[in-house]
Amino acid sequence: MTDQARYGVDPYLNWVKQEGLPVTEDYGIDLFKVPTADWPRYGVKGGAVHMKGRGDFANMFVLDIPPGQSTTPQRHLFEDVYYVLEGSGSTQLEFADGTRRSFEWGPRSLFAIPLNARHRHFNGSGRERALLVDTTNLPMVLNVFHNEAFVFGTDFDFLERAGKSEYFSGEGDLITVRPGNHMWETNFVPDLGAIELKSWGDRGAGGTNIMFVLADGTMHAHISEMPVGTYKKGHRHGPSFHVMCVAGQGFSLMWYEDEQDFRRIDWKHGVVLAPGDRQFHQHFNTGPRPARYLATAVGGLRYPTTAANRISLIGAKEGDKPAVSKSVKEGGDQIEYEDQDPRIHRLWLEDMRRHNAEPRMEKFIPTPKEFLPPTAAE
Ligand SMILES: [Fe+2]
Fold first, then answer.
1. CA of 31 to the centre of ligand 1 (A)
2. Which residues of 87-120 are buried (b: 16+ CB within 10 A; e: fewer)?
3. Residue 357, pLDDT above cutoff 50
4. d(CA 299, CA 290)
5. pLDDT for 372
6. Cα–ligand 1 centroid distance for 77 (angstroms)
7. Maximum Cα–Cα distance for the chain, whole Å?
8. How far is CA 82 from CA 91, 113, 317, in A?
């Protein structure tokens, strides 16, 4: 036998294997339970997370930095959006012109590494590990160039992506577009649980959100909040959106148009789910406080990257509503409360009952008789 036939090659998957990274694959994953192994390239423990709905472009890495340790310096031609699951520490960046930046992160921090900037993460604790999850577009980059030395060993500097120095201190610029599309341009958010969100009426039930532009990159991130006793409208879009619970408790349902049953993912801090391409999904708060989640993806408001993202997030043409907040009855991708499968509201009400939580959705959708308090039902 000569060389194996070069046929149907996936350079990204081959690379993951060669790096020795354990892979976890599913629709919903608890990132605290993901197996990790020594990852010589980073000098700490790592694992790869392949959500079934991730599409072709995105992946996740989990980095487990032992107490008092740090990653080896890295630079690479793919984008990183980090979310801190546990622990605290700092990250140092170095640009070719000698400029250095550093910032300190803790639980629920969000940050991005400007493309190809040299960076290093330090665990600031001598006792506790730090657990970070990194959403990246490495699958896209590696499958296009299929050359590891180029992706991890290129000196080119994208200085225009470094951003203002304040972008590393938790400050940023608010760019108001329209409800649902306000952008917060920054490189670092110290605490996603504390950042102020803007109203997004279209998605229903008093929800708020903010879209991020991070390190002028193509990776998207946004954070949404559902008030107590509410849930959001069902919707669908392209793949690669990784949804992570930041605060509160609840669950998500996911289903394809032709499916009879819903796939249910219960979430708490550390759980990620990723709806597949055009798979409907809906998020529900069942807890005593507002529920927040973070979503990361390839392609955002500034750089949609794909035509599907542009239609979904911005609109098919000038003046159009983003498809993601336009009713399916008007050719969009959102299911209004009055059009949703009646099983959905009941499923949520049962869950609310189990949690002893008070529903506050009467304004948007009538409560079925069996769920009304006895006095009101008479
Ligand atoms: Fe979504």
1. 20
2. bbbebebbbeeeeebebebebbbbbbbbbbbbbb
3. yes
4. 27
5. 85
6. 27
7. 81
8. 11, 8, 32
Token digits for 127? 């006792």
CB half-sphere exposure, 262, CA atoms < 13 A: 20
Match 């992160």 to its residue by tokens.
105
Q: How far apart are the C-alpha atoms of 273 and 30, rounded to whole Å?
A: 9
Q: How far is the CA of 221 from the centre of ligand 1 (A)?
A: 12
CA of 220 to the centre of ligand 1 (A): 12
Say whether pLDDT at 239 is over 80: yes
Whose CA is closest to 241, among 275, 218, 216, 265?
A: 275
Q: How far is the CA of 292 from the centre of ligand 1 (A)?
A: 13
N-to-C CA span, the chain: 81
**What distance in angstroms lies between residue 241's CA and the mean position of ligand 1's atoms?**
7
150 CA from centroid of ligand 1 (Å): 34
Q: Do residues 157 and 103 make contact, with C-beta atoms less than 8 angstroms apart?
A: no
H/E segment holding residue 143: helix 138-145
Say how many residues make up the chain. 378
- DSSP string covering 140-160: HHHHHH--HHHHHS-----GG
Q: Are 286 and 245 in contact (CB under 8 A)?
A: no
How many angstroms is it from 236 CA to the middle of ligand 1?
6
Model-level pTM?
0.94
Closest CA to 115 of 264, 255, 9, 218: 218
Any idea which residue has 């949703």 for tokens?
Answer: 340
Tens digits of residue pLDDT in 240-291:
999 999 999 999 999 999 999 999 999 999 999 999 999 999 999 999 999 9
Q: How far is CA 128 from the centre of its chain?
A: 25
* Distance between Cα 240 and ligand 1 center (Å): 10
Query: Residue 208 pLDDT > 60, yes or no?
Result: yes
